[in-house]
From TrEMBL:
Organism (species): Periophthalmus magnuspinnatus
Classification via PANTHER family: UBIQUITIN-PROTEIN LIGASE E3A, UBIQUITIN-PROTEIN LIGASE E3C
Main localization, broad class: cytoplasm
Active site (catalytic residues): C795 (glycyl thioester intermediate)
Protein name per the record: Ubiquitin-protein ligase E3A
GO BP: any one term: protein polyubiquitination
Amino acid sequence: MKNFSSPTLIERYFRQLTDGCGNGSCTNEFCASSQNFKPLDKNAAAVKALELFKNNAKLCDLHIPKKDPSSFSGVDRQINVRYISIYFFYKLPLLPTDIHHLTENNICMILRFCEEANDFSAAAQAIGRVFSNSDCLMKSFIREEVKNTKQLHPQNHPNKQDESEMGAAAAIPNQDTNEILDLSDIKVDINVIRRVYERILSIDEIQGALVDALIFLTPNLELDLEYLDVYETNPDYLNIFLIVMENTNLHSPEYLEVALPQFCKAMSKLPEEAQARLAKIWSQFGLHHIRRMMETFQQLITFTVVSNEYDSDNIVNDDETVVAATKCLKVIFYASILGGEIDVGHNEEEEEDFDSEELSLHELMGEERIYKRGPRVDPLETELGVKAIDSRKPLIPFEEFINESLNDVLEMDKDFTFFKVDGESKFSFQTCPFILKVITKNQGLYYDNRIRMYGERRLTAFYSMMQGREPTPFLELKVRRDHIIDDALIRLEIIAMENPSDLKKQLVVEFEGEQGIDEGGISKEFFQLFLEEIFNPDIGMFRYDEDTKLFWFNPSSLENDAQFTLIGIVLGLAIYNSCILDVHFPMVVYRKLMGKKGTYQDLADLNPMLFRSLKDLLEYTGNVQDDLMLTFQISQTDLFGNPTLYDLKEKGDQIPVTKENRQEFVEMYADYILNKSVECQFKAFKKGFLMVTNESPLKYLYRPEEVELLICGSRKLDFDALEKTTDYDGGYSKDSQIIKDFWEIIHSFSEEQKKLFLQFTTGTDRAPVGGLGKLKMIIARNGPDTDRLPTSHTCFNALLLPEYSSKDKMRDQLLKAITYAKGFGLL
């Protein structure tokens, strides 16, 4: 039977039934040469030939050379095909009921006959019937080794099955022959499915049948999964979703209206165990296929959002299609993570919780749902055993999972409520933070922080009423400019020891001896001055790298842990009070704050020279031991620049680095630099940070690079965007000549002068998350021409600009103001 395609095999069965094999002693009951065979007319023989082919029945060896199928005359061949084709199409209404699942073989057979008849209605009906039935589709395209394992009939020798598959494979070329998939976890043959789709999706009748079948199939899938727990009883149910998602036309308009939304609703009903299994399977498919699936769900979300109008009564959270597609996109998100570079180890020890009595009070007041403690846990993360923070480099960049259209219509105040309170009854997109922009997440974090501040005020009022003491609704910090570190350290240390929950109150700073009510601006200046002092190299708490312009913890610092705890508290307070800080930490600091230890890869931005040296060591092709002469003892410099030795292993100076252990050496070297050498300092720093943020959804919503953006703001300053969003007051407008002159002056400034202007006007030289276009600056008229300098209210991002008589005068006055201004009440 080797090297024969499906139609040729059917012809041989037909010839065997009508003419026999030519062997007078044949015992095959389905051969005309057998003495026990009952003669059949040609119509009956055509029916029986198809049945024998389907069952892979015994086929006799021919003993009549002239009747070999390969030597059939043109007339003979036409007659055979005609009889079989007549049966095939006359039996059209019954044909789909005869096919209970699809294989590459029977699809090839059907398509061959349809092509000869130039009518694909039979194929559309057969394929549509299987794709509309969950049981039939689940049993389709099963891998051959799985079928052979399940049952191997005595009359079906394995070679015969292989031969029939060879014929099918010849009909549909394999486009993925170079792709190696380790998919032992599934029973369907992915490459066969892809070959079949490639063939049938170009046929309009079959394409329409697939759309209709999916529409018919998906409601039943949804019911099965929601009410019958079908996956628990039959894990092969997942085959359906694997088969459907290989359809490369799912993003096309005919699917987007009904079929794909219904399919997403069904898929979103899969239990976490099944979704995790899908993510693991798809993670092996490679970038091209994962990206296609990601784009399919993204296109559905975008199509649905732009096709609808949302308002306060009809919010996007209530759109079942968008919600279901987002849940499906989450599976692809984790598949992208699993398929990329991940680091599931190297986790920092969890810090202790900072319990306080207020929680019980919240419970008494019925607010325990709002004031939940502890980080949220994504059940799919738990099932997979991997988190977004574990991803070093996903297959698809995280940014591509953000959906701009969804972010534009999402009402974060309502979404936050669903996230914190009504999570069981309402869907919150914050449970899928990968789809949100950082600025959208910031709105949610802002609501969370403000509600906690408001809650602390209520608690303070409650305590004051019960204990008869004066209420202190704010975290009040009174400091002297020339003793800012000492004053802040003493005050914050007392608060942290006596009542850490006070750190959750709104920060109000007062500089001793200065006028000014802190509505945000004084706090901004406090943070700036504090950081200038704390990062001063003379203090020795941090080391500064001239090449990278980054600070790192000084392992030899003489300062106690309380100082580092204070810095952590300040970073947490900046996030909690929506202030941007001018800090320059490497990314590994934020990764460690989010729970990951530093590894060799983190040295790339902290110490590029050391990273390259270790990389060269790993890639060295010569004799590592003799040529490099390294040991497991390394040298570092202390606070005073003196060299100190450290053994990475016990008696490390006696253990040479070889080709076999160089990977271990590199890992231990990086672990020492990033973790062990600064363990005490960083632990105190993180403790302070968590005192403020331990109840925040920060860790759940943000990735390390987003936390850096949240704390430090953006270094990219787009003053064109700032100009477009600036408001005017006091008689000025964007068409006023002085305003036109003002913006010409600003655009002509150097980068350093622009930073000074931004510092003068807003209290920071960084752009907020989202860029300067998100900064609402106000320019107000401050009287007629005068020799007074411009002034500002940094609390409100307001610039008070007199109506100067000339452009040159305005430029001079602006430069004086931004260069020499410092403090409150000086101008």
